[in-house]
C-alpha cells in the first residue's frame, strides 16, 4: 500500500468525525493571565478580515523604529501542553500542566516584506539559495499520482523565498504573505537581527491556544457562521481544493480573525518553526515527508518541531490545523509550507 493510501486509511476515518465540529470559543481558567496591560496604547495590526489583509503591505506600524513593532505581550501562565484528542505524539506528559514566562510575540507570521528588509540590511543569503532549490508543493496530475508517492512534492531548482515556485517566479505581489522556503537557521538569523528568538514549542502553543482549553481546540477551525476561520485545505487532498476559505495556496497574513491573544494565523496558512528538537513518538509527515524528495546530496539534519499546520492540512489528510499539533522538519530543509514568527522574552529581574 502506498504512503498516501496508508495515511488516508489510517487517519481519514479516525479524525473526520472528531474534527468536523465548528470552532467555538471556550473560557480560560483563572490561573492564566495572557494578553495584558503592556499592550495598552500600542498599535495592533489592522487585520482580521479579507478586506483588511488585502490592504496590508506586510510591515507593521513603527517598523524599525520600535523594537517591538508588530508584537503583543503575553504575561506568563500555566496551561496544558498537548492534547488527548489528536495524534499519539501530541499526548500530554502527565497532567500536561506547563508554565511559561512572559514574552512578546509577533502578531503575524514574518512576512516577505519584513524578510526582504532583513536581507537588504544584512545581505543575508538563505539556505535554499545556497542549496540551489527547495521542496515545493503543487497539485499533482493523475499521471503523477500513479507514478510515485508524495507526487505533490518536488525539489524545484532555483526555488527560494524570492522565487517561490522556482526560477522566473517572484514575490512582487506577495509581500504580505508569510515568508516560506526558509530553514530554521534562516529564521534564527532574522530573529537575532532584531534581538529576538524563536519560540519554544511550549511558548508557541501557549500563544496559539489564545486563552482557551477543552475540546473546541481540536475541532476544525470554523467561525460561528460555519465558515473556515483559517487557511487550510477544503476538499480532497491533494487533487481538489474547493477554495471554501477563499485561498488555494498561501494567503496574506491576517485574513481571519485573531485568537484570544490578538494573534493571527496561529492555525493554518504556514507551519511555523520553533527552536526545539523534535522528540517523542516518530511519525512521518502527513503532508508527505519533504526529505524524501530532496536531492541525494542533501544531508539529513536534526528534526525540529514545527507547529500549527498549513494550507495543506485537510480533514482527510493531515488534520493538524490545531494548536496542539506538532510535526517534525529537518532543520536545514526549506519547504513552501513553513514560515515562522519571533518572540522576545521578558528579562528576569
Automatic annotation (TrEMBL):
Q: Which residues form the Sulfatase-modifying factor enzyme-like domain?
A: 69-343
Name the InterPro entries on file: CTDL_fold (IPR016187), Sulfatase_Mod_Factor_Kinase (IPR051043), SUMF_dom (IPR005532), SUMF_sf (IPR042095)
Which is a Pfam family this sequence falls into?
A: FGE-sulfatase
Please list every transmembrane segment annotated in the UniProt record, as residue ranges: none
The lineage's top-level taxon is Bacteria
Q: Which PANTHER family match?
A: FORMYLGLYCINE-GENERATING ENZYME, SULFATASE MODIFYING FACTOR 1, 2
Protein's name according to its UniProt entry:
Formylglycine-generating enzyme required for sulfatase activity
Amino acid at each position: 500500500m502506498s504512503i498516501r493510501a496508508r495515511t488516508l486509511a489510517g487517519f481519514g476515518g479516525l479524525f473526520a468525525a472528531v474534527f468536523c465540529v465548528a470552532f467555538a470559543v471556550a473560557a480560560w481558567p483563572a490561573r492564566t493571565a495572557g494578553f495584558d496591560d503592556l499592550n495598552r496604547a500600542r498599535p495592533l495590526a489592522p487585520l482580521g478580515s479579507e478586506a483588511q489583509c488585502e490592504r496590508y503591505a506586510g510591515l507593521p506600524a513603527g517598523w524599525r523604529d520600535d523594537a517591538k513593532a508588530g508584537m503583543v505581550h503575553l504575561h506568563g501562565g500555566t496551561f496544558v501542553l498537548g492534547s488527548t484528542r489528536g495524534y499519539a505524539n501530541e499526548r500530554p506528559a502527565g497532567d500536561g500542566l506547563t508554565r511559561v514566562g512572559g514574552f512578546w510575540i509577533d502578531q503575524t507570521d514574518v512576512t516577505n516584506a519584513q524578510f526582504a528588509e532583513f536581507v537588504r540590511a544584512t545581505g543575508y543569503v538563505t539556505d535554499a539559495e545556497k542549496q540551489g532549490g527547495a521542496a515545493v508543493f503543487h497539485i499533482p496530475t493523475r499521471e503523477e499520482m500513479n507514478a510515485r508517492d508524495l507526487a505533490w512534492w518536488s525539489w524545484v531548482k532555483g526555488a527560494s523565498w524570492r522565487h517561490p515556485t522556482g526560477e522566473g517566479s517572484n514575490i512582487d505581489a506577495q509581500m504580505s504573505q508569510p515568508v516560506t522556503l526558509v530553514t530554521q537557521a534562516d529564521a534564527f538569523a532574522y530573529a537575532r537581527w532584531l534581538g529576538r528568538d524563536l519560540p519554544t514549542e511550549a511558548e508557541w502553543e501557549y500563544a496559539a491556544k489564545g486563552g482557551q482549553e477543552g475540546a473546541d481546540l481540536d475541532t476544525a477551525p470554523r467561525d460561528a457562521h460555519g465558515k473556515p476561520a483559517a487557511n487550510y485545505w477544503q476538499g480532497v487532498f491533494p487533487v481538489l481544493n474547493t477554495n471554501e476559505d477563499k485561498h488555494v495556496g498561501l494567503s496574506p497574513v491576517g485574513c481571519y480573525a485573531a485568537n484570544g491573544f490578538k494573534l493571527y494565523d496561529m492555525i493554518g496558512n504556514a507551519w511555523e518553526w520553533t527552536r526545539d528538537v523534535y522528540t517523542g513518538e516518530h511519525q512521518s509527515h502527513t503532508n508527505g515527508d519533504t526529505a524524501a524528495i530532496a536531492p541525494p546530496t542533501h544531508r539529513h539534519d536534526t528534526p525540529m518541531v514545527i507547529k500549527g499546520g498549513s494550507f495543506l492540512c485537510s480533514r482527510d489528510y493531515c488534520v493538524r490545523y490545531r494548536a496542539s499539533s506538532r510535526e517534525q522538519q529537518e532543520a536545514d530543509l526549506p519547504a513552501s509550507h513553513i514560515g515562522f514568527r519571533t518572540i522576545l522574552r521578558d528579562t528576569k529581574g
